[in-house]
Amino acid sequence: MTTTKTITHTAAALMAVFIGLNSGHANAQPILTFTDVIVPGGINPAAIGINNAGTIVGVYGVEGDPNFWAGFIDRKGVFTDVILPPPASTISQLTGINDAGVAVGQNFGFDGTMQSFLRTAHGNILYPPEATTSGPNPFTWLIHNNNQGDVVGETGSDFGGNSSPPHGCVLHDGHYSLFDFPGAVGTVGMGINDHGDIVGWYQNATGLAHGFLKRGDIYTTIDFPGADFTNLMDINDKGQIVGAYGSVSDYTWHGFLFSDGVFTTVDFPGEEESGNIVWSINDEGNAVGWYANGNGGFLVNIAPPKNVKHKQ
Question: Is the pTM of this model over 0.85?
Answer without folding.
Answer: yes
